[in-house]
Amino acid sequence: MQSLARGLAVIRAFDSEHAELSLSDVARRTGLTRAAARRFLLTLTTLGYVHAADGVFSLTPRVLELGFSYLSALSLPEIAQPHLERLSRTVGESVSAAVLDGDEIVYVARVPTRRIMSVRITIGTRFPAAATSMGRVLLAGLDERRLADLLDHGLPEPRTDRTIVDAAALRRELEKVREQGWALVDGELEAGLRSVAAPLHGSGGRVVAAINVSTSATRDSVERIRDAYLPELLATAAAIDAELALV
Fold this sequence. Notes:
- This protein is an alpha+beta fold.
- The chain folds into two domains: about 1-65, Winged helix-like DNA-binding domain superfamily/Winged helix DNA-binding domain (Arc Repressor Mutant, subunit A, Orthogonal Bundle), CATH 1.10.10.10; about 75-245, Beta-Lactamase (2-Layer Sandwich).
- It is built from nine helices and nine strands.
- It has helices spanning about 1-10, 25-30, 35-45, 65-70, 75-90, 135-140, 145-150, 165-180, 220-245, and strands spanning about 20, 50-55, 55-60, 95-100, 105-110, 125-130, 185, 195-200, 205-215.
- The strands form two sheets. The chain has a six-stranded antiparallel β-sheet with strand order 6-5-4-9-8-7, with helices on both faces.
- The longest helix is centred in the C-terminal third of the chain and has 23 residues, at about 220-245.
């Protein structure tokens, strides 16, 4: 156990500001003797995790495998959750992640701040995809055949007087979402509820989930959502995408 800890300490001695280290540097940064530092560096070099040239050591790309194994074992909600928590702290609003199941979205991760809907949202809560920002993003990510299959079955009953109930109108909205890369829904799921969503992508760029920020119409205007929340949302989606690309 002690040898493993020391070996990991040697790896952690390298960072963005110390990409290349001498033997003395490694010994100093880890607290190991020069002899011990040399022994661990030689072992890591043999294993392919460290490159040595002219007395200077640096990590190789193979060291990323140590992180890949961990990321591969994580599910999408586990990867997204810490990012959602940071986003919620930044914008001060509830944020969520959902996936598409038929013509409904299913919540798979959530960070609530205050209750703004008449129903309590928990993991597993379902809503009609067509009436939600996350659903619009997910529907826009479908290929034409799958989207046509869903729309051919008809749209769900309107939730408010703002809900889009015409398939042609929904198609136009989805095309807009596809072009701009995000969706904003104002009062279509529930009166007074506004939300903005962005897609999450898996391997090959396929849309696999969506995240959103939801707020109250009495608290935030559509303009504020676009100007203040959307940039943070898109940055969070990009950060999650970067981790999903490693899985």
